[in-house]
Amino acid sequence: xxxxxxxxxxxxxxxxxxxxxxxxxxxxxxxxxxxxxxxxxxxxxxxxxxxxxxxxxxxxxxxxxxxxxxxxxxxxxxxxxxxxxxxxxxxxxxxxxxxxxxxxxxxxxxxxxxxxxxxxxxxxxxxxxxxxxxxxxxxxxxxxxxxxxxxxxxxxxxxxxxxxxxxxxxxxxxxxxxxxxxxxxxxxxxxxxxxxxxxxxxxxxxxxxxxxxxxxxxxxxxxxxxxxxxxxxxxxxxxxxxxxxxxxxxxxxxxxxxxxxxxxxxxxxxxxxxxxxxxxxxxxxxxxxxxxxxxxxxxxxxxxxxxxxxxxxxxxxxxxxxxxxxxx
Length: 328
What we know:
Layout: E1 10-21, E2 24-35, E3 41-42, H1 45-63, H2 68-78, H3 82-89, H4 95-100, H5 107-115, H6 119-128, H7 135-163, H8 179-193, E4 196-197, H9 198-216, E5 225-228, E6 231-234, H10 237-243, E7 248-253, E8 259-264, H11 276-289, H12 294-301, H13 305-308
Antiparallel strand pairs: 1-2, 2-3, 4-8, 5-6, 7-8
Helix pairs in contact: 6-7, 9-11, 9-12
């Protein structure tokens, strides 16, 4: 980064700050650039957006308010327009769309949005709003809700086994907890590397999520990471790789004679499931580590403060360590 004051170099600096949002105090990692020559600080639009997003994330998590991607997913699952969702829920006509685009709901509306993630709960709103629906619309929605309910039990079980009871927080980079998104991240790297050893994938996922948080203010996979003896790894990594459909593990003997488990799949990655920003992160991680093997990428992860500061207690790693990444 070039300094606007001198044209010389500027470095990214971080500090812990507190601020008040909607009468509540929140702590966040404040980013800014500092001119090397004058010591003056400045920000960019991207940095300002990131700083405020941390505060908004904390507010949403504190009050159980869904994030924009979750609000979009609710409507997509029920196959309804934003206008129709607004009318069923008793919001203003444009309100649901505004929430999808990032406007933060008040606590009351936020709790409504959280509740209707359950098909059974949403059905009560549909029944109450029958007067704003045609008979055909009403029956189609009821049928769709039955289909969603049939799938939700098994989907919910796998979700719980992989993510546990986690909510979006600083320990998973405030990412959406989505099995589908996680699966496509795995498929992306399996396809790129022509199969990925488990140890290697553990580190790739760490760098993917922490880089994404550093660049975009949000991780991708929804996984939390622990600092264990052999480096940072996803929590429940064994379940992650064994429970997701279409991904298999095979035993492969390495050049040194050691046998390791390799993740393989015949399923192509659905690139459309990623935003442009997410895809850019995935490509950057691949380009950075495409010549590494399990051993070399593990060595690199042992140089990261995220691991060094937490490995003694095998603690979960706070995503604030994204700003001290060394290898990427």
